[in-house]
Design a protein that fits this description.
about 425 residues, Lyase, Ornithine Decarboxylase, Chain A, domain 1, TIM Barrel, 2 domains, 9-stranded mixed β-sheet, 8-stranded parallel β-barrel, 12 helices
Length: about 425
C-alpha cells in the first residue's frame, strides 16, 4: 500500500486504522460534507510542482524562461486565480478559457491562444486583449488572422505551430507531432516554410516565435531533441532567429505503482541543452524558452473520491463493485485505456480480497475505473480514493445520463475552498431549476 500512497498528493497521511487525511482533513469528513463524487486539489502539491520545475529551468537554462499552464488540464476560476498568483503563464484554446484567464488575473502578456480552428470571436478577443501570442496552426488561419488584424488596425503578435513529423510512443489519440495529425503547419511539404515567409512580410503580423507539441505522456526526451533540431533547421533556412521558442509540454506522469519513475529534470535538461546547442551552431542569442505543462503540474495534486454502491458477481464468477461516478467525470479509461490505482479509506492496511472490476454507474459497458483491481473486500458505503486525478478528468467531464458534474475543492491545512460547485439534476440547460 505504501507504493500506492507514493502516488498521492504531498499532504496525504494515513493513520494506523487506515483512514486517510489530506492536509489534516479527513477524507471521510469531506465526502460527508460535500458529497461524492468529489474532487480534491492539494495546494501544497501544486506549489511544489511549480517550484520543482522552476528550479530545474533556472539550473539548466541561462536565459529568460517561463512556465505556462495548459488550461485544458483543468481550469476553474478558483484554480486559475491560484495559478496566476504563482506567476505562471497560461495556454488557452477557447474563448471561454481566454475570458476565464483574464478574469482570474493572468496578465495579457502571459496568455497564449492555441487551437486548430480558432473562431473569429476568439481571434478578435485575443487581438483586443493584446495577448502574448496567437499560436497559428495553418496557412488558412494565418490569412484569416491577417484579415482580422488589418480590419481592426492592429498588429497580431504570433508564433507558428510547426508539425515536425516526429513520432512518439504514447496512445494514438495523444500523438500530435507526427505527419498524420490535424495540428500544426507541416514541415515535410513546405507549409511551415511558406507560413514563415508570409508572416514575416506582412505589416499586420509580428512573428516572434516557433512552437511545437509532440503529444502527451512522453517519457523519452529524445523526440523533443529531434523536434527542436528540425524547427531550428527551418529557422536557419529562412534566416529567422526566434525571440521566443516553445517545445510544448506533455511530459510524463505516473498513474500506478508499476509505472517507472522518470524525473522532470530529464525533460528540462534535454530541451534546454538542445536549444542552446542549436543557437550556438547558428550564432544566435538564446530565445525566451516557454514550457507548457498542464498534466505534470496538477495531476498528482488531485484526488477523486467515490462511494461504493452495488456489489455483485456475474454467473462466470466475475466480481463487480460500482461507484457513484465514472465515465461522466472521468472518461480517460474509456478514451485511452488509462490505468489507475486506488485505496479504500479505512481499509488501507487490509490485504486484497481477490480481483474485482471497479466500475461506474453509467450505461456503457466501457465504464471502467479499475478493471481487475486488487482491493480489500468492498461493501456499500465504502469510500474509494483514486490518486493522480487532477488533470483531464473534470476538464473532460460531461452530463452523460444527465448526471451533474462533481464538486471540486482546493485543500489547505487552514481550510478548504470550493473550486466548482456540484451540478444539481434539472438545474442545467436541459431543464428548469427545481422549485
Amino acid at each position: 500500500m505504501n507504493d500506492t500512497l507514493a502516488l498521492f498528493p504531498l499532504s496525504i497521511a494515513c493513520d494506523s486504522e487506515g483512514r486517510l487525511t489530506l492536509a489534516g482533513h479527513a477524507l471521510r469528513d469531506l465526502a460527508r460534507t460535500w458529497g461524492t463524487p468529489l474532487y480534491l486539489y492539494d495546494g501544497a502539491t501544486v506549489r511544489q510542482q511549480v517550484e520543482t520545475l522552476r528550479a530545474a529551468l533556472a539550473a539548466a537554462y541561462p536565459a529568460a524562461s517561463e512556465i505556462t499552464y495548459a488550461a485544458k488540464a483543468y481550469f476553474a476560476l478558483g484554480m486559475a486565480r491560484r495559478l496566476a498568483a504563482l506567476d505562471l503563464g497560461v495556454d488557452v484554446v477557447s474563448l471561454g478559457e481566454l475570458r476565464l484567464a483574464q478574469r482570474a488575473g493572468f496578465p495579457a502578456g502571459k496568455i497564449h491562444l492555441h487551437g486548430n480552428n480558432k473562431s473569429a470571436a476568439e481571434l478578435t478577443a485575443a487581438l483586443a486583449a493584446g495577448i502574448q501570442a496567437v499560436v497559428v496552426d495553418s496557412l488558412d488561419e494565418l490569412a484569416f488572422l491577417e484579415t482580422l488584424a488589418t480590419a481592426q488596425g492592429r498588429r497580431a503578435r504570433l508564433w507558428l505551430r510547426i508539425t515536425p513529423g516526429v513520432a512518439v510512443e504514447t496512445h494514438a489519440y495523444r500523438q500530435t507531432g507526427h505527419e498524420h495529425t490535424k495540428f500544426g503547419l507541416p514541415l515535410a511539404d513546405g507549409q511551415a516554410a511558406e507560413a514563415l515567409r508570409r508572416a514575416r512580410r506582412s505589416p499586420h503580423l509580428e512573428l516572434v516565435g516557433l512552437h511545437t507539441h509532440l503529444g502527451s505522456q512522453l517519457s523519452d526526451p529524445a523526440p523533443y531533441r529531434e523536434a527542436i533540431h528540425r524547427l531550428y533547421a527551418l529557422a536557419r533556412a529562412a534566416d529567422f532567429c526566434p525571440a521566443e521558442f516553445s517545445p510544448g509540454g506533455g511530459w510524463y506522469v505516473r498513474y500506478t505503482p508499476a509505472d517507472p519513475l522518470v524525473p522532470v529534470t530529464a525533460w528540462v535538461e534535454a530541451v534546454t541543452a538542445a536549444v542552446q546547442a542549436e543557437c550556438r551552431a547558428a550564432g544566435w542569442p538564446l530565445p525566451r524558452l516557454v514550457l507548457e505543462p498542464g498534466r505534470w503540474l496538477v495531476a498528482q495534486a488531485g484526488l477523486a473520491l467515490y462511494t461504493v454502491g452495488a456489489c455483485k458477481q456475474s454467473a462466470d464468477g466475475t466480481r463487480w463493485a460500482a461507484v457513484d461516478g465514472g465515465l461522466a467525470d472521468n472518461p480517460r479509461p474509456a478514451l485511452y485505456g488509462a490505468r489507475y490505482a486506488a485505496l479504500v479509506d479505512g481499509k488501507v492496511h487490509e490485504p486484497p480480497a481477490g480481483t474485482l472490476n471497479l466500475v461506474g454507474k453509467f450505461c456503457e459497458s466501457g465504464d471502467f475505473l479499475l478493471p481487475e483491481a486488487r482491493l480489500p473486500a468492498l461493501q456499500r458505503g465504502d469510500l474509494v480514493v483514486l490518486p493522480v486525478a487532477g488533470a483531464y478528468q473534470l476538464s473532460m467531464a460531461s452530463n452523460y445520463n444527465l448526471a451533474g458534474r462533481p464538486a471540486a475543492l482546493w485543500v489547505e491545512a487552514e481550510g478548504v475552498a470550493l473550486l466548482q460547485p456540484r451540478e444539481e439534476p434539472l438545474a442545467g440547460w436541459w431543464g428548469e431549476p427545481e422549485a
